[in-house]
């Protein structure tokens, strides 16, 4: 019964805090914390802010220190904390109490707690300053949410044209995304359309503004798909059959600039310097001086 009474008394206060928080921008209720042990967790950080402030006063009426949410970046290869975090508080008063924890210890390290700088809405939205190369139909995408998979990325870019392939690099030991991807369209004009649209309004996924750039490099032979299989022997093989990628056996394909059917279409059926037709044509046997085939 006593617990029920406490919850009933707390509910109006929580509702009032939520209403007050809705009127205050998140950036004005956020603290930046650095110096954290690499083994730190979100729960430990919440407990840290629920402790006493530098003036010895505990966070009154906030069992969790008034913390609303925590953004704690982690290394994708190990999953360990990067040593800093952004902590969003429910109210400005909670933030002020949190700032009082500056210099307090978490484990064996003391933390620096300060007001966070306002986030730029276009942070990370870097765009290419060059024109699209004539043989390019692939975009290099950075600042992706780590939770975004191939399907989510395809859905975001398919409005610009037919997406031929998506390569999403992952860490080998955790299979977690590295936050970057290669999006290849069937036509180069689609890549240009994506860049043009992002120039007017940044592409955003889960609150993160994406950076785009043209990519003319060939896929690495060691690249693996989400299933762990060699991309060149699965999806890459299918793309070569469709003529989207140059045959893997032609070592000079990359050097000649033959990489997509868009390059062939731009040159009237041939890639740069006729490389597409040459790549498709069977190799002629050379005659030796003695009349035999080499």
From TrEMBL:
Alphabetized GO MF terms: RNA binding
Region entry Disordered, spans: 1-30, 237-294
Keywords linked to the UniProt accession: Repeat, RNA-binding
Superkingdom per UniProt: Eukaryota
Keyword RNA-binding: yes
Domain RRM, residue spans: 29-118, 137-217
SMART domains, A to Z: RRM (SM00360)
UniProt signal peptide: none
UniProt keyword RNA-binding, yes or no: yes
Bias (Basic residues) ranges: 282-294
Biased composition (Basic and acidic residues): 1-16
PANTHER family xrefs: EUKARYOTIC TRANSLATION INITIATION FACTOR 4B/4H, NUCLEAR RNA-BINDING PROTEIN SART-3
Protein name, as recorded: RRM domain-containing protein
Gene source species: Cafeteria roenbergensis (Marine flagellate)
């Amino acid at each position: 019964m006593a617990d029920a009474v406490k919850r009933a008394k707390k509910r109006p206060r929580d509702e009032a805090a939520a209403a007050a928080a809705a009127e205050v921008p998140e950036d004005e209720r956020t603290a930046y914390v650095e110096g954290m042990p690499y083994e730190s967790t979100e729960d430990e950080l919440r407990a840290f802010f629920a402790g006493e402030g530098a003036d010895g006063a505990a966070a009154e009426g906030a069992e969790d220190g008034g913390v609303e949410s925590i953004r704690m970046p982690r290394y994708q290869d190990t999953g360990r904390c990067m040593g800093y975090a952004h902590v969003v508080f429910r109210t400005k008063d909670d933030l002020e109490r949190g700032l009082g924890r500056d210099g307090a210890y978490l484990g064996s390290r003391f933390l620096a707690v300060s007001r966070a700088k306002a986030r730029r809405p276009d942070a990370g939205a870097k765009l290419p300053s060059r024109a699209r190369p004539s043989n390019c139909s692939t975009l290099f995408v950075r600042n992706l949410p780590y939770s975004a998979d191939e399907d989510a990325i395809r859905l975001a870019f398919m409005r610009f044209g037919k997406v031929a392939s998506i390569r999403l690099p992952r860490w080998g030991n955790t299979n977690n995304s590295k936050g970057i991807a290669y999006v290849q369209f069937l036509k180069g004009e689609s890549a240009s359309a994506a860049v043009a649209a992002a120039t007017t309004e940044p592409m955003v996924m889960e609150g993160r503004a994406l950076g785009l750039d043209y990519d003319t490099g060939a896929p690495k032979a060691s690249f693996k798909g989400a299933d762990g299989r060699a991309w060149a022997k699965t999806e890459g093989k299918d793309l070569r059959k469709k003529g989207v990628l140059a045959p893997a056996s032609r070592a000079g394909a990359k050097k000649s600039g033959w990489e997509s059917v868009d390059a062939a279409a731009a040159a009237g059926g041939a890639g740069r310097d006729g490389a597409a037709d040459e790549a498709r044509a069977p190799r002629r046997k050379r005659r030796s001086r003695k009349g035999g085939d080499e």
